[in-house]
Each structure stands twice: as structure tokens, then as C-alpha cells.
Amino acid sequence: xxxxxxxxxxxYLRAHGVDAWADYIEALPPNGExxxxxxxxxxxxxHPDPFRPRTDRGLFMRRYGLPxxxxxxxxxxxxxxxxxxxxxxxxLGPDDALSPASIVARALDRLx
Length: 112
Description:
Order of helices and strands: HHHHHH
Oligomer: single chain
Number of strands: 0
Structural class: mainly alpha
Shape: globular
Low-confidence stretches: none
Number of helices: 6
Mean pLDDT: 79
Radius of gyration: 13 Å
């Protein structure tokens, strides 16, 4: 299922003009941690087709950052922290309304 998630995510990025990242995401190993984190995240919301960001964090993918940044490992880690779901991380409940500040803080905590 991770390979399908990567293809859907790549199609989403291409649809938003982020072609370099689409190619990078699609080339990730389907059994790698990033792919598995994205797959867990999409499983949480029912594996939508086409790809749908888990929360408003998808703005990072469309507008704030990725379009201007060449694909690299560090930014991939940020993307995984924002859009992925780490193994053992609790899923978001229907009442979770995370502010952008708390989302960024959580993402930065994961990178340390």
C-alpha cells in the first residue's frame, strides 16, 4: 500500500506544480520509513484517492516551502513530520484542532 500512497502523493504534488518533489517522493523506497509514515497517515483517513493531506498541514506541500526547495533529506524529514504518522504515534481524533504553531512545534520536536 505504501507504493500506492507514494504515487498518489506524487500526483497531488504534480497537480500543484511541485514536480521535482513529486519525482522525489515517487522514487522513495516503498518499504522505507518515510513511505510507511505517509501510508499510516493516509490509512488514518481511509486511503483517499486522490491523495488528501491529513490536515491543513498540506499547505506546506502546496505553498509554503516545497515549491521553492530542491528535494533533500532534511526537508523530507520535515514533510514526514508534518504529513506522516510515525510508528506508535497516536492518530488524530475528530476533535483535535491543532493550531499551526503547535503543528510546527511538534514537527520540530521530532527532528531533534
